[in-house]
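ok new one. same drill as before - structure tokens go in, u give me an amino acid for every spot. 156 of them this time. try not to just spam alanines like last time pls lmao
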């Protein structure tokens, strides 16, 4: 598995993210790769409508509950969060590995070393695939229209 392939695959999901957050996601992929851990990006920016559709699952729509955040109550809705999945490689193909093993915790550590907040640290709802970078802005501030600076020089 080549690093360039992992990075290429990630780009579709990284569009719509704040450029600094997208850069941190790329750095996370790269650093994990250096340790032999392959990750893919499964979610990035989500519209408020998409978030509300997810929130309805297991509540007003059939399915199981996948989020505790309704539209506007997730950093995904503001392009400041992304989700990953650790993968195994089988015959050259990436196979998502959702069982929580040491790789997930290592990815969490690497993410934190990049300044990201990791959902695996949350107390009430552990969200191991989730990373966010809030610029110190609360969701209430974001809902009120406050935005992070657009042009931040990304640290590589
Ligand atoms: Zn997430």
């Amino acid at each position: 598995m080549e690093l360039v392939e992992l990075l290429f695959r990630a780009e579709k999901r990284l569009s719509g993210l704040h450029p600094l957050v997208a850069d941190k996601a790329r750095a996370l992929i790269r650093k994990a790769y250096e340790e032999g851990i392959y990750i893919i990006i499964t979610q990035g920016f989500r519209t408020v409508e998409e978030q509300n559709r997810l929130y309805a699952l297991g509540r007003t729509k059939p399915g199981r509950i996948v989020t505790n955040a309704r539209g506007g109550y997730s950093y995904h809705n503001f392009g400041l969060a992304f989700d990953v999945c650790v993968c195994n490689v089988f015959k050259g193909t990436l196979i998502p590995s959702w069982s929580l093993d040491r790789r997930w915790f290592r990815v969490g550590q690497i993410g934190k070393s990049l300044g990201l907040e990791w959902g695996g640290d949350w107390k009430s709802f552990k969200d191991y695939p989730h990373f966010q970078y809030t610029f110190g802005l609360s969701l209430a501030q974001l809902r009120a229209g406050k935005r992070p600076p657009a042009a931040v020089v990304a640290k590589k």
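The helical segments are 3-14, 19-34, 48-56, 102-113, 139-143. and btw The chain has five helices and five strands.
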